[in-house]
Automatic annotation (TrEMBL):
Gene3D superfamilies xrefs: 3.60.21.10
Keywords on record: Hydrolase, Iron, Metal-binding
Provenance organism: Shewanella psychropiezotolerans
Ranges for domain Calcineurin-like phosphoesterase: 1-186
Full protein name: Calcineurin-like phosphoesterase domain-containing protein
InterPro entries the UniProt entry points to: Calcineurin-like_PHP, CNP_phosphodiesterase-III, Metallo-depent_PP-like
Family: Belongs to the cyclic nucleotide phosphodiesterase class-III family.
Amino acid sequence: MRIYQLSDCHLQVDEEMPRANLIRALALIEGKRDGDVLLLTGDLVCDPSIEIYSQFKAIVQAHTSIDRVFAIAGNHDNLTMMKSVFSGSRIQVKNHVHLNDDLSLCFVDSSQKPLSNMPLGAGRVSSKALSSLKKITREHQSIVVIHHPVVNLGAKWFTRIGIENNLDVIKAIHPQTLAILSGHAHGFFKQPIKNRGKIIPLIVSPATSYGFEHTNPDYEKNTNIGIMVYDLNPAPNEEIAVKKTGTNNRQIEYTLSETVITLNH
């Protein structure tokens, strides 16, 4: 199974470059004709409006034939507006979906405003979403999809705009989780998350709009953009691949590998 991830598209009504980059990314994916799932991991637009979300929807509908398209909100998004505009289209906004009998996607909304005085761009996961995350990842082998990285990483300024209650998020994720996929950083990162004796990889996608220069402690953009590709395969060792479930059913365990595709100008 192949999953593509686009993040931080920052579509704007009066800016041509984010639109062109989004279309270029979708065209690249469509040309490969091997995608099973497309993830749109937040900050889809810069300034939420019915008009710009309608334009975003039209671009995705026109430039990809992938049936299973899932979107989450980022700090720039309006989740209620997204759900309204995307309703009835191929772009689905959900909490949880089964990829097959053995593997699920768990979508977590980190676009809520922090309760404390954090800089613009920071997020928070609600108590209800935390409970759902805990339940889903306990009951299903899952890939967690969330806009903000669950740990602070990158440039010094960027570490201040993470998830206010990120430790609660990590605690809610069951250690059988296959990976955590996020965006927000406008750059690729891969970091191990220690969770009750297990290591869960956190994989952060570059943006399609513009990059952040994380070597600079102060805010700076760059032109490094890209998308992520993930390949899911059953674990190669049969003894590892089949997990005892306490019933007569046998659950296949999966491995995930990632590739960054750069879209630099």
